[in-house]
Amino acid sequence: MTNLRRDLRFCAFLALLLPGLAPAAERTPAEAERIAQRVLEHAIVIDTHADTPQMMLDQSYDLADPASPYMISIPKMRKGHLGAEFMSIWVEVDWPPQDLIRRALDLIDAVNVQVAQHASQLELAKTAADIERIHLQRKIALLMGLEGGHIIEGDLRVLDIFYQLGVRYMTLTHTKDNQLGDSSTSQPHWNGLSQLGRQAVEHMNRLGMMVDISHVSDQTFYDALSASQAPVLASHSSCRALCNAPRNLSDEMIRALARKGGVMDINFYSGFLDQAYADARRKVLPQMDAEVKAAREAAAQQGKHLSYAEEVKIYQKYEPSLPVPEYTRIADHIDHAVKVGGVDHVGLGSDFDGVDSIPRGMEDCSKLPALVKELARRGYSEQDLEKILGGNVLRLMREAEATARRLQARERTAAR
Fold first, then answer.
1. Under a CB-based contact definition with an 8 Å cutoff, are residues 244 and 275 in contact?
2. ∠ Cα 7 9 10 (to 5°)
3. Beta partners for residue 335, in sequence order
4. pLDDT tens digits along 11-61
């Protein structure tokens, strides 16, 4: 019995040291509410992926619209205590290849127009220090991430231009393989990163642009992790153990990402969160896709392009018949990622305005406090909540910036 008590005490001691263990005991709703309110008063809530720039460009959407139909707006960000948002500069993989860069530049311009029009509320951030300064000024920081390596058209010099314009991460692939590497949702072409892809990772490290491995194949993930001298980012990916989607990270991948100091930001899309929803949607997907295809063809006959927002409306017609999960499913994925990789390696990557289904209770960014309260109820400390809500992403940005300074200094020394 004495040995048993000693072993139990030793196990309890280990539990305090291991970073990936579950949070403390659950709290009452009232206690959780108090903790959530305290955290939201000072934490910098950072979301690493929203697709709202499409609407800004194609629908002339104004972020200040008080009646906004979209998931991101200034009033909704204020209500949700959102302190910084990475705006996705996304161009469809089937966009005319000679026009990819121009489309991306138009999206960047749309973000800049919003910042200029609402300068008292918004400011473009380029560094972790910028985010902290803007937050102290009680404004919202907007950043940008390039979604899909196909956009640079195989020219690494384009990365320099995008970096100068404020882009702070690039997702190596999107839904199809490109010149940089293999995607998670297409047949492998390179068996991971291509040689150009490895050069792109090196170039991004030198610039201070974070390497984003959401959307990449498993082999591309491991190749990028090996090639990068800075920790890498999964800007909007969830846990494969809870929902078996190729876009999600396996437990092995989560552990590997964490060992290299990376951060995975949980995606809020129902199809990446909940297996029952994903299975049910898969059954009606052919019908959904056929309807979208017909709408695209009808638009093309009129010399128009069917926008992503219009496509989403078609997909959302099927939502009433699908088992949409509750927002607490997001917390389940955060729990799992914390248990597997540690609390220092998890964040938020909503995919707001880029998905056709979002959990009930998380319809837009104004609902983020409900998630914070749920995490507080589950026993997360205030310090850990601050990390998950944005502190981990800030740390990753600082490490990317430090890596760039080190590599650039080495180049200057070698050139002497």
1. yes
2. 65
3. none
4. 444 443 455 555 778 999 999 999 999 999 999 999 999 999 999 999 999
Q: Is the pTM of this model over 0.70?
A: yes
pLDDT of 2? 44
Structural domains of the chain, count? 2
Residues 270 and 293 in one domain: no
Answer for the pair 81, 39: CB distance below 8 angstroms, yes or no: no
Taking the C-alpha atoms of residue 308 and residue 192, their distance in angstroms, rounded to an integer, is 29
pLDDT at 10 over 80: no
Given 261, 289, 324, the domain boundary residue is 324
Residues 307 and 385 in one domain: no
Task: Classify 214 as helix, strand or coil.
Answer: coil
* Residues of the domain holding 314: 275-324
Sort strands 167-171 and 140-147 into parallel, antiparallel or unpaired. parallel
The verdict on 255 and 280 lying in the same domain is no
Q: Where are the alpha helices (DSSP H) in 49-194?
A: 53-58, 74-79, 100-117, 128-136, 157-164
Is 230 domain-assigned? Answer: yes
Spatial neighbors of 17 by CB under 8 A, at least 6 apart, are none
CA nearest to 205, candidates 226, 184, 219, 221: 226
Query: pLDDT tens-digit profile of 319-369?
Result: 999 999 999 999 999 999 999 999 999 999 999 999 999 999 999 999 999
- 83 by DSSP, 3-state: which? strand
The answer as to whether 19 is a domain residue is no
User: 45: part of which helix (H) or strand (E)?
Assistant: strand 45-50
